[in-house]
Amino acid sequence: MTPGFLFATGIENSSPTINGGSLRMDELEKCGHYRYWETDFALVRDMGIRFLRYGPALHRTWLGAKRYDWEFADAAFARLKELEIVPIVDLCHFGVPDWIGDFQNPDFPERFAVYAAAFAQRYPWLQLYTPVNEIYICARFSALYGWWNEQLQSDAAFVTALKHLVQANILAMRAILEQRPDAIFIQSESSEYFHAENPAAIGPAEQINARRFLSLDLNYGRRVDSEMYEYLMDNGMTREEYHFFLDNHLKHHCIMGNDYYVTNEHRVCANGDTLPSGEIFGYSTITNMYYGRYQLPVMHTETNLCEGPRGDEAVNWLWKEWANVLRVRNDGVPILGFTWYSLTDQVDWDVALREDRGTVNALGLYDLNRNIRAVGRAYHKLIADWREVLPTQSVCLRIPIIMPEDQRAAWCDARTPRRAGHGNEATAAPSNA
After folding, report:
1. What is an example of a GO molecular function annotated in this UniProt entry (predicted)?
2. Which structural domain range is residue 188 located in?
């Protein structure tokens, strides 16, 4: 059965390195998932959620060139299939194995594509993928701010990380499509905006606002504007590399995943420094900007807020984000899903994983003891209230997703297109349902 609206959550699997590469911030370990993974999957099902942003730890699974340890992934994905939960497979989330090094390594894209192909071949029932998560954020935090992985702070390092991450994403999409021709890619990316603090800050703000689009421009084969073209060329991208991105024609396999947090908007000073601004435009306004640029179906792929002393802060944020989703739909944008990220509380995200403090961030539908939070109860009710309403009362998408329970159906093979040259029609197309 093809689903209507995609209500989702995620299990946080960030794994960047810090301290010069000597310490890995493995959120699956910090949040207890390796111990409680079966309980976690049961909680997803109990919540009434059918879609889960999830992936095995890359550094534990990808051991070397064509060397893999599938033991944990085999057990985890088998259980998800039994529970009829559809994974949106998150293959690379802010970190790579030690043997790769970091995102400055030019061998990373080709080698990652080999890993993606091996993964898709091993788990042929999986259809939805985010090959590389939040490319812009990963490149910015690793190579411009100096927080993670290579811990560099230069435009040249940022452009190098950016191009390698996007190349890896594109090559992985190609590799997955060879194994699963009807694969759909939900490209989770941070949707941001930078506000000029004063007239002198207008120029710097415009430049940063142009830079925020680079990962998606390159991923979707869209020509960048002239200032960003010069920026890329001045910082190490070659014309050949740029045309690799322009010649990429995989956009019709993609859904644009827009992530939004209260931290996604910024004040820009005259010298180009940025400060938190809090929510000014909000998700609906910024998502309309991104949709206008790329004209792709949209999914709200991440949001959360800490439960504070009153106990209702996260609940109020959930309803605000949901109101934004409905506003986007009413504006005529084909938005097909919503995600509270993540299933459980997280650890050390209050310092963006820059330090190993062990601080629990109360961001989850459940706490780390797997007790439901107020926002978990609110999300469960939201899903129950809206699941049957949205497909019949507003513009939605008919998405060609084959659910786990249908994988063995005779018509499944008939619906799965065979790859013939470049012809591959697995597009999420708008429709009035």
Report:
1. hydrolase activity, hydrolyzing O-glycosyl compounds
2. 6-431
- 179, 126 contact by CB (below 8 A): no
Residue 1 lies in a domain: no
How far apart are the C-alpha atoms of 129 and 236, rounded to whole Å? Answer: 29
Peptide bond into 284 cis (omega under 30): no
Longest Cα–Cα distance in the chain: 64
8-state DSSP, 280: S
Q: How many CB atoms are located within 10 Å of the residue 49 CB? A: 22
d(CA 378, CA 78): 29
- Quote the tokens at residue 73: 């992934």
Distances (CA, A) of 314 to 30, 298, 304, 373, 386: 22, 23, 7, 9, 19
State the pairing for strand pair 67-68/86-92: unpaired
Q: Is residue 384 classed as helix, strand or coil in its secondary structure?
A: helix
Q: What is the CATH number of the domain that holds 169?
A: 3.20.20.80
| pLDDT tops 70 at residue 423 | no
**Going by C-beta distance under 8 Å and a sequence separation of 6 or more, which residues neighbour residue 413?**
none
Q: Tell me the pLDDT band of 402, cut-offs 50, 70 and 90.
A: confident
Provide CB contacts within 8 A for 150, sequence distance 6+: 101, 102, 103, 104, 142, 143, 157, 161
CA distance 122 to 176: 11
**How many Å apart are CA 357 and CA 348, to the nearest integer?**
6
Alpha carbon distance 98, 225 (integer Å):
36
Q: Is position 13 within any domain? A: yes
Q: Is the pTM of this model over 0.90?
A: yes
pLDDT tens per residue, range 116-154? 999 999 999 999 999 999 999 999 999 999 999 999 999
Average pLDDT of the chain is: 92
Tell me how crowded residue 184 is: count the other CB atoms within 10 A of its CB.
Answer: 20
Alpha carbon distances (Å) from 120 to 125, 175, 410, 426: 8, 8, 21, 17
Indicate whether 212 belongs to any domain. Answer: yes
141 within some domain: yes
* Dist. CA 57–CA 60, nearest whole Å: 5
Tokens of 334: 């084909």
Residue 388's CB: how many other CB atoms inside 10 A? 11
